[in-house]
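Hi all, posting the design record for the shared folder.

TITLE: backbone redesign
STEP: 1 of 1
STRUCTURE INPUT:
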């Protein structure tokens, strides 16, 4: 159990916001007041300009609504709009509790920001789940049309007689558009109700709360009362023929044929009032329930493009020289304003829950819960700073927290279960950065509390003492070259690198017997292509990826600092590596430490060598069914999906089959986020889950492009009892196919 957290004076690695005269929360308040002013001005304008008789084909606005009621309508609406602005401002003030983070709109980012924003407002990201996309589109777009229809009516109402435009055919078309939108909106509401309370997917069922009923009930009331009020108005007007264009209101009005004028007037007033009250209820629910995502989700999407690559963790200051005393995220104030805004953008859709390998195999981690718990702690600890705000979704009162301590709701077990596969971030329709939060909290646990799984302690010691997590002697790093007759040049550092590529072998490729075969195969292929390359041998150290992803930034900076010094000292420009973790760290994270290199994964290099003809695969043949497993740090973190498939696809006779979950939807092997170095005590092994999926394709071979995936999936395949299925790296499959045809080598044996 960890003790109470100290509230930081300064969050890690970043300065606090300088005092600003106009903050975003002021802007939210100003927008609310401006909206209220517009409503009030509209009411006053109606008093001055209104009162004109309706055109022959048109409608009298506020017919059957007495003057004092109109005054109350405008006053209450204006006050409600101002209150909505104030409630949003309080939420924004809550985000301002976070540390600084740059998400500027510049010439370089404006295009990307607008594209993400457009995807948000056009339902592009939501529509990736088809059923949810259609349902949301039916709710959202007709709602916008209905809102626009109301505004147009109000504008027309304020205009002097000669400028009014809602007459004749324009009015007929206007009526048609409004009614069709109303029907579509109601269809969306009913679909949403059926989806949530009929046979909801698990991810919705577990998070259905009373506020969902309040939101959808309010929508239903808005839609039904709107149609009824219109029907009553038409009935009161004596059902003129031009109102047939109200394709719902007109037929509905016939139902009230028998009512006398007094009764019609009363029912019209009742339905009109119900419609107004339902709309005001919607306004109040907007900032106070998860409905707020109508505003916060597009905003979050707009702000999502950032100035670091997808695969890079947030940079930290140099821990050897910094004056900061607090690192990682232990309390709300340790997170940045963007990380806090994130949580308020959550739609609680549970797509992240559905794709999380930890969650699906019975571990205690659910990415949605991480977001909701951060949001809950932020909201409930706001009373002393920005004033109390409603949590993201309703929650159990006994779980209420008062302090800003993130660990009051989040357990270390949840955080250590994460494989950093990034599936949650990838699938989130509103671009919430879940993985960053998890890794920042891991940083807090490791750096501030020294709380991490015992197995990691051993790996940390090996990394610190031996420069690799296996704890092997650095002098053995290049021993795999003994298997190559032509050898490989080893750079001793006495002079600048005079080879085109530096081959970064990585710890797994250097020390793990199974993966040394991949290293030998890759080097052999590069030799055959006539590539000029060398290795660092004993001077290569772990890139620091397992240390960084387990929160040990101190160790990461130590290892990475040494490597950058070595590489920069040699003047290295081009690096090739077969490990996606090395690839990601070298390419995306070493720039944070002054190391800038052109890094390629061996799949990209081999693909390029094949397509350019430098590697002759003309006779290479593999008459097998093969399935390829996407490594998370190659695919989702770096967008490399096709190069490995192109390498396999160059072989004659091969049949490539895809697993159900592949490319961006690929399932993790369970090794990332330093999980390779931890025991998997709880639930089903992730590697077994993935191996079962691979075996189910009927493939005889599973191709990998990551040394850790190869180990995890091979272990998983063994557990399924399928000894006939071979798991091997693409380089080994390629070399075998080339050699088998030329009679140069034997078939690759199962490792
Ligand atoms: S990164 Fe992967 S393992 Fe971690 S929470 Fe997200 S989906 Fe789950
Ligand atoms: S974090 Fe994203 S994917 Fe997960 S529930 Fe929230 S909106 Fe949905």
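Okay, here is what came back for every position:
SEQUENCE:
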């Amino acid at each position: 159990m960890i003790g109470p957290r100290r509230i930081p004076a300064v969050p890690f690695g970043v300065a606090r916001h300088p005092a600003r005269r106009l903050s975003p929360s002021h802007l939210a308040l100003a927008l609310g007041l401006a909206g209220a002013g517009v409503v009030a001005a509209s009411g006053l304008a109606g008093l001055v300009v209104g009162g004109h008789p309706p055109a022959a084909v048109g409608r009298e606005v506020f017919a059957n609504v007495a003057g004092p009621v109109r005054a109350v309508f405008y006053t209450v609406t204006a006050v409600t709009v101002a209150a909505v602005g104030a409630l949003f401002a309080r939420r924004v003030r809550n985000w301002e509790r976070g540390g600084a983070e740059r998400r500027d709109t510049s010439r370089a980012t404006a295009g990307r920001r607008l594209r993400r924003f457009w995807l948000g407002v056009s339902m592009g990201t939501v529509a990736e789940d088809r059923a949810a996309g259609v349902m949301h589109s039916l709710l959202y777009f007709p709602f916008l049309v209905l809102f626009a229809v109301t505004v147009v009516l109000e504008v027309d109402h304020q205009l002097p007689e000669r400028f009014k435009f809602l007459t004749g055919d324009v009015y007929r078309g206007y009526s048609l558009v409004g009614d069709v939108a109303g029907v579509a909106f109601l269809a969306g509401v009913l679909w949403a109700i059926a989806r949530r309370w009929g046979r909801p997917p698990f991810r919705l069922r577990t998070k259905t709360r009373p506020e969902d009923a309040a939101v959808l009930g309010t929508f239903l009331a808005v839609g039904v009362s709107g149609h009824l009020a219109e029907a009553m108005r038409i009935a009161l007007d004596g059902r003129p023929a031009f109102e047939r264009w109200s394709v719902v209101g007109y037929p509905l009005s016939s139902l009230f044929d028998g009512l006398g004028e007094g009764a019609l007037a009363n029912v019209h007033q009742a339905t009109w009032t119900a419609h107004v009250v339902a709309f005001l209820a919607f306004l109040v629910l907007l900032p106070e329930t998860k409905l707020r995502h109508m505003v916060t989700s597009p905003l979050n999407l707009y702000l999502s493009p950032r100035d670091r690559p997808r695969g890079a963790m947030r940079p930290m200051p140099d821990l050897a020289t910094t004056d900061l005393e607090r690192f990682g995220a232990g309390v709300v104030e340790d997170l940045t304003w963007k990380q806090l805004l994130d949580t308020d953008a959550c739609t609680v859709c549970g797509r992240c829950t559905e794709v999380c390998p930890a969650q699906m195999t019975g571990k205690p981690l659910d990415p949605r819960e991480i977001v909701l718990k951060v949001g809950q702690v932020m909201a409930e600890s706001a009373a002393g700073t920005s004033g109390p705000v409603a949590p993201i979704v309703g929650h159990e009162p006994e779980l209420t927290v008062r302090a800003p301590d993130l660990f009051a709701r989040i357990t270390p077990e949840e955080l250590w279960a994460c494989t950093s596969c990034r599936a949650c971030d990838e699938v989130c329709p509103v671009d919430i950065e879940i993985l960053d939060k998890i890794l920042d909290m891991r940083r807090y646990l490791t750096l501030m509390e020294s709380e991490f799984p015992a197995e990691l302690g051993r790996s940390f010691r090996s990394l610190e003492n031996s420069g690799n997590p296996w704890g092997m002697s650095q002098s053995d790093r290049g021993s795999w070259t003994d298997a190559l007759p032509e050898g490989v040049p080893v750079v001793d550092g006495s002079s600048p690198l005079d080879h085109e590529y530096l081959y970064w072998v990585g710890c797994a490729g250097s020390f793990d017997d199974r993966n040394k075969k991949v290293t030998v195969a890759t080097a052999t292929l590069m030799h055959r292509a006539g590539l000029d390359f060398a290795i660092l041998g004993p001077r290569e150290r772990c890139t620091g990826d397992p240390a960084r992803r387990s929160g040990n930034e101190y160790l990461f900076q130590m290892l990475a600092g040494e490597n950058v010094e070595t590489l920069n000292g040699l003047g290295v420009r081009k690096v090739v590596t077969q490990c996606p973790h090395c690839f990601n760290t070298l390419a995306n994270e070493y720039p944070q430490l002054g190391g800038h290199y052109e890094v390629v994964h061996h799949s990209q290099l081999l693909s390029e060598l094949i397509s350019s003809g430098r590697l002759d695969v003309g006779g290479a043949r593999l008459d097998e069914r093969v399935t390829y497993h996407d490594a998370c740090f190659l695919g989702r973190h770096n967008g490399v999906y096709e190069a490995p498939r192109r390498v396999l696809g160059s072989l004659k006779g091969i049949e490539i089959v895809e697993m159900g979950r592949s490319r961006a939807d690929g399932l993790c092997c369970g090794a990332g986020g330093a999980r390779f170095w931890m025991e998997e005590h709880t639930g089903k092994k992730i590697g077994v889950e993935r191996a079962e999926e691979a075996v189910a394709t009927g493939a005889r071979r599973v191709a990998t492009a990551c040394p850790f995936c190869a180990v995890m999936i091979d272990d998983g395949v063994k557990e399924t009892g399928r000894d006939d299925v071979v798991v091997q790296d693409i380089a080994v499959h390629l070399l075998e196919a080339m050699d088998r045809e030329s009679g140069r080598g034997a078939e690759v044996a199962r490792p």
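COMMENT: The pocket of iron/sulfur cluster (ligand 1) is lined by residues 355-358, 365, 367, 418-424, 434-435, 438 (CB under 6 Å).
Let me know if anyone wants the other runs.
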